[in-house]
Amino acid sequence: MKKTNRWQLVFGILVAVGLVTLAISGYLTPLTRLVVGPVVGAQTWLAERVQAVKELTTAPSDLALMRQRIANLEAENSRLQIEVIELQQQVQQAAVLSTLVDYARSRTENRYLAASVIGYDTSPFLRYILINRGSDDGLRRGMPVVTNQGLVGQVAAVNSSAARVQLITDPAASVKVYLHRADAEAVVQGQLTGEITLEMAPQSANLEVGDLIVTSGLGGNYPANLVIGQVTSVRRRDSDLFQSAAVQPAVNFAELEIVLVITNFRPVDTSSLIP
To answer: How far apart are CA 157 and CA 255, in angstroms?
Structure first.
């Protein structure tokens, strides 16, 4: 029995040595591929399925994270756009203020107070703006309001912190004016349409398109030589006592942001002197 076991051991060793020799020599490669190939393929397939399941289970969280990142980027973009708009507005206001300061320095006969436009009258028949200066700042009714472009209007009502300014385009507004080239006096009148016209010009006046119109200072409501605008067309008929003209205002009333109030001018009330 022991002899038989010994021969089995020897036989096993010889078979093992033979297999190793065959493997080293490459004779068992086809057999190895035949046996091992399906096992490796099964492992690869199983690994791919496990990875697919893992990706499927993690996809919702990745998608939610991506959506959150997109939302954060959109919010940041909106914030930056608002900052850009605010900076542009600040730059624009700084440029306007710089221009107004230069204008005020060139008109040393007057004292000025800058004010921001905080509202417009919504009535289609009235032309007013609201400014953020009031009686606490020294404003009084009747003070002229200008920009570097020309005359805006006149303070019509005041409280402690704000004022209402009647524009020269208001239908109730009337300004006595002078045309230097034509050497003529007339009146600029506001219209319901928001335009202004030149009225009461003498028939003898030689009005021309392009004539510059300024305040005359007569009547005591405005100081002299504030720019009103230019004549754009002349209407004259021999049968009329006076001639009139269409006027292009010097001020762009639709874009008023900052104005100057002439604080050292006091209008003269002549109403009680008119018979």
So the answer is: 22
